[in-house]
Amino acid sequence: MRSLTLHLKLLIAILVVLGISVTAYQIFVLGIPVTEDATDDLWNIDAKVEFVANAKDPIKIQMFVPPLSRDYVSLNESFISNNYGVAVNRVDGNRKVTWSARRAKGNQTLYYRLVLTKRYSGEKSKVKGPTFRDSIAVEGPEKIAAEALLAPIRQHSADVETFIGEAIKRVNNLNDDNVKLLLGGDPSTANKARIVELVLSIAHVPVEKVHTIRLVADQPQMPELWLRSFNGTDWLYFNPETGEQGLPTDRLLWWTGDENLITVDGGKKANVTFSLNNSEMNAIRLAKLTDENSDANFLDYSLYGLPLQTQQTFMIMVMIPIGVLVILILRNLIGIQTLGTFTPVLIALAFRETQLGFGIVLFTIITALGLSLRSYLEHLKLQMLPRLSVVLTFVVVLIAAISLFSHKLGLERGLSVALFPMVILTMTIERLSITWEERGGGHAMKVAIGTLFAASLAHLIMSVPELVYFVFTFPAVLLILVGFMLAMGRYRGYRLTELMRFKAFLKKVDA
């Protein structure tokens, strides 16, 4: 007996831990929203390219576009132009679009449009980078100034992260004579980044320039320069003005390297302006779109991977254990008497079609008339099988009659009575009549009312939209329910109704 108890406890623990672990993985790693009304941001980015074309020269415009290999995934990407050929290529980890035309004249406008969202999959691609680089060739005073800056940087740093951060802070100290010499009177961010790269190269620390766009709606902007270095495990991002480490979450990496955003052959006065706006979309729908536009496919192995019609069926099926749990609590803890465990749940499912109030009325009418017929058949001394056959036929005729009269009276909801499981109604009538004979009419009415109450409560709980969504999206919670049901299987204590029943007896004992 002791070994059996230990086995049961281990089984319950395994089921509960497994259910919690899988659900937590879906929520915290895959990022699946907990509520159905949760929304996520959908970003629309427009890059407007304007230039003046030379009338006699072929036109070739090249512009960097996001690689989308970090935290974002593209849902739609379009290149809008008139009479231009379009090609997209990958170059040194970047993506570059090329617009080309044989002839063009005057002012030209091209558009690049991108719709993106956060990448849902927990498995984000990691691109490794170099951990060593050769020194940049520099001579004369510039070499002496760079080495003079490098000495205190070494002294005040402990690893790659602090080394780069200290270098950026030193280069941004415009009162330092060495910095003044290296900057040459140009304190721009781009020139500071060049000096940081020079100083770090002497220490053989690789660093590269990254150009980002800030995801802020309705604000004109230009790409913002950041620096990054690979420490052997992760990319470390740094603000070249402050030395702040860590790329903010609202930054989209557009391209890396020293090249300009756009190059134009056969034209002049090129200019690129960015405009952004964001909207919200249902999180699950957005997750499906993300799944379709990436290689993650993390929803393929969930119930959302099923055909839509099958999903609707499973939305009902996964709620049946919830209804069974309700009946289990009502029977084993509270002590309400019902016609078995599954009959109230099946009646609760029937209420989905008729709605609760109308369903209770129909159930009561059909059951009452069926019991009356069953009582009449008792006087005919029929055997059980013929008796059940007559009751079943009567139920069918009664359902058809109710449906017909409801239609004639304009009560279309009455047509849904045909969806009531006829066999369930027939067996309910038969079991109630047997209970009536064996234990009296009062007990039969108590069981009938208990069954109807349990079915109604189960229907209300099984119909809660938030609960339906949660169980359907995270079906592993059913393992937790199984663990609770197993634990309930060993409950031998008093039920709530029994405590009330024996309350007077306890008072007499105390007296």
Explained architecture:
This protein is of the alpha+beta class and 511 residues long. It has three domains: 39-126 and 267-292, Immunoglobulin-like (Sandwich); 140-251, no CATH class; 312-474, no CATH class. Helices cover 49% and strands 20% of the residues. It has 17 helices and twelve strands. The protein has a four-stranded antiparallel sheet. A hairpin with a 4-residue loop joins strand 8 (224-230) and strand 9 (235-238). Helix 2 packs across helix 3 (160-171) and helix 2 (140-155) packs across helix 5. The longest helix has 28 residues, at 2-29.
SSE layout and pairing:
Blueprint: H1 2-29, E1 39-53, E2 59-65, E3 72-80, E4 85-91, E5 94-101, E6 106-118, H2 140-155, H3 160-171, H4 177-183, H5 189-202, E7 208-214, E8 224-230, E9 235-238, E10 251-256, E11 262-265, E12 267-282, H6 283-292, H7 308-317, H8 320-334, H9 342-354, H10 356-379, H11 384-408, H12 422-439, H13 441-462, H14 465-473, H15 477-488, H16 496-501, H17 503-510
Antiparallel strand pairs: 1-6, 1-12, 2-5, 2-11, 3-6, 4-5, 7-8, 7-10, 8-9
Summarize the structure.
This protein is of the alpha+beta class.
Structure characteristics:
single chain, 511 residues, alpha+beta, Immunoglobulin-like, 3 domains, four-stranded antiparallel β-sheet, 20% strand, elongated
| Beta fraction | 15-25%
Number of strands: 12
Portion in helices:
40-55%
Structural class: alpha+beta
The major pleated sheet works out as:
4 strands, antiparallel
Overall shape: elongated
SSE ordering: HEEEEEEHHHHEEEEEEHHHHHHHHHHHH
Strand order of the largest sheet: 3-6-1-12
Unreliable stretches: none
